[in-house]
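FW: tagging you since you asked about this chain on Friday. Here's the raw sequence from the shared folder, copied in full. Didn't touch anything.
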Amino acid sequence: MKNLNVYAFVITILILVACSQKQPVPESANCVPAPENEKRMSDPSKEAENQNGEEPQVGLETDMPKVDLIQFTPIEMTEESTLGSATKSSCCPTLCYTDGYFLNSNIQTITTESNHTPMAEAQGGQYFSSGQLTAGEINDFSKWELWDDIAEGDLSLYQTRWRMKPDARYSAIVQNEDGVPVVDCAVDLIARDGSVLWASKTDNTGKAELWNKFFSNSSASEVSSIQFKFKGLNREIKRPKEFSKGVNSVVLDVSCDFSNSVDILFAVDATGSMGDEIEYLKTELADIITKTSQNKPDLDIQLGTLFYRCLDNSYVTRQSPFSKNVNSVVSFISQQSASEGGNEAVEVALHEAVNDYKWNSNARARLLFLVLDEPPGLEEQVFSKLQSAVQEASKKGIRIIPLVSSGVTFDIDKSLEYLMRSIALATNGTYAFLTNDSGIGNFHTAPSTDTFKVEKLNQLLIRLIDQFTNVPGCTPIEVELSDSIVVLNNNLNLPLGADSIRFNLNLYPNPAHRHLFIESSEEMEEIYILDSNGKLILRLTPREKIIRIALDEYTNGYYIARCRAVDRWSELKFIISK
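HL: got it, structure written out here
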């Protein structure tokens, strides 16, 4: 017994010494250090227990590393709070910056300065931090032939279900006389009877995507022309070619002038099925919003959010209008939760997001991130609202970027995948999805594709925002490309799932002006040219060792040439600068 007492005394002394070496934390902050082995709790029953006042659970296993305290500074909350401040705690008038610390249930939300770890959130004793969710992206524009194969094969059933078929595609490029892309130019696909088959606007690279008979319940029409309207100028291309035969290019006599306005809206499913991931998603979105505003001070960014549930729930949608106050947007997100269910009002959310929000009429980019895990119902009014919202989004130049969360059943997941990939194509967007790699949430059904890269969700969405807002500039690009040059989209997968095995490949001149020569040590079987957004703009099957490509139709900017020879792939970066 004496030996046991001695051991107990020694252990107690060691614990006291260890605790005394930790950095002190102000009592008023209401925070305690996060245990190294704290578990992220996503079990709804555990969440309910914590919300009912029981002590938070600690001491369970996790793979989340402990982050040492870097700075801890109580600050006062003001009406005109700036980045780095946090929403007011219910227990004290002061706020704090923190890094890697477990917060008790009184602190609802905190944000950190740019050199600290991202926003952490604690509700009922739970710990959340950004950079935990993992995701992938499929840009079907960069794998157009593969999309055709998948849409006619694995996903063909859902063409009929959703009455959408992205097939008859017309691509247009608008540039000025110096080869600079013309951004936000209205582009219409016109039928022989003069009606508008599809309306769009050029993106940050001067490209627009148009569709004939996109909805299967629309009548087939013969295409007559593509019309362009920009600042009082009107141009027309008669008898335009489908994408399989090339790109439709027009040159306007306008100066280089890019708007600095960028609109970003997040529409988020807040039904009960999102309960396994919504707290993490809220933290990731807050981090993305904060970092985007910090990283792009030259842009005039307005941010908005919309949360939606079902038609017979306590609410259908909750809107936070566009605002330039980052803290108010983050605060609105932090107040939302997942609950209730039924037929999810995806069509209502899209309709309101596109039509109720005051999108800038002149903008460099308009991005709508749609976060969801289930499709809407199959009623006629649902189809009508969906089709109307998608067409209006394209007309306004709003790129819809779906982000699909954990699944329900295989059929529902694949149905949602086809619907979301089709909507992304219709609006010149891209398709993103959460993956199982994070270990968070329920099972995520893998998409139908060849390969994709797994990234941290926050990094992926920040990359997409960069990718869709960057412009090449008004002055010619005179630098010589090297491996140190970063092309805007670093997530371009090789077509058909091949590995990149470099063989002797050369291209010149670089930067290129009117022509580009590609030379290989082997006979080139296939060449893909992709722009900085990852969009496939040209495919060739030369069966030659050297070819010349005319560049008149393409705007200034960064590009990638991918070549296949003897079943091997190699790629090089190049610049067009006219």
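FW: Residues 24-129 form one domain.
HL: agreed, and The chain has four domains: 24-129, 134-138+260-469, 167-252, 495-576.
FW: great, closing this out.
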